[in-house]
Amino acid sequence: MLRFGLFGTGHWAAQTHGAGLDAHPRAELVGVWGRDPEKAAALATRHGVPAFDDVDALLDACDAVAVALPPDVQAGIAVRAASAGRHLLLDKPLALTLTDADRLVAAVRAAGVASVVFFTQRFHPNVDGFLTAAAAAGGWQHARATLFASIYQPGSPYAGSSWRREQGALWDIGPHALSIVVPVLGRVTRVAALDGPGGMVHLLLTHDGGATSALSLTLDAPPAALTRDVVLYGDDGVEAVPPGDGNALTAFGTAVDQLLGQVDSGDRDHLCDVRFGREVVAVLAAAETARAEARTVDLQP
User: Fold this and answer.
1) Are 192 and 160 contacting, i.e. CB atoms less than 8 angstroms apart?
2) Distance CA 272, CA 87 (A)
3) Whole-model pTM over 0.85
């Protein structure tokens, strides 16, 4: 049984992280910390565990952390957790700057702890199986991903999310698109980006070996235009990446399973560990530069 401290009290923390930990047969939720003490107390009471007002006190009480906080807040807490020897189940994006992402990767490496970054789609078995098979087949020349969400409509649990309003679709759903495209086409080596209407952003990427991808993202699509469409183009034709055949809660359970697998085996390599999370942050940061300076940005190996 792995003892988890939950950091975060919002919708995603409560409905996915908290519920998923509570339901998992090998996870024990031992406490909740949040920036809003009242929300922390309410979520902790729901699960029959204490609310903590001190980060380090909760770290002392657990073996692993599950973090569902804005990425700039997550990065600092994750470094503290890793430095204390706690395993990490983090959310995407890993951080909002490459400096913070590098600092976290270094802390994880130094401590030798296990890490998983919860790119939701990657933890649906049918999506993971498809990507594994596509990468093994090879011959892909291009990918197109169109992810149009609409989170600002009445009743949306994310409508009040300050960090999403500030950072937009690039940082919120860009990681999801990259988590699907990069495993098949390889590391991103060049980034171009431009803005569209309504908070839309478009990325044109070059990958190792010369393949390209085009990502179109928004959080403020007209409700009638909601789209999740990811397509690969290659030597053998056109393949659409399937949507996950489960929900976020079942995917989170798989992420917990895989973190436990690392802890049990001592193997710290994972396809969605903090190193991959850092790779995604590097692409997003390059895209920010490309947008701001109207130029193409090359990524260093």
Assistant:
1) no
2) 14
3) yes
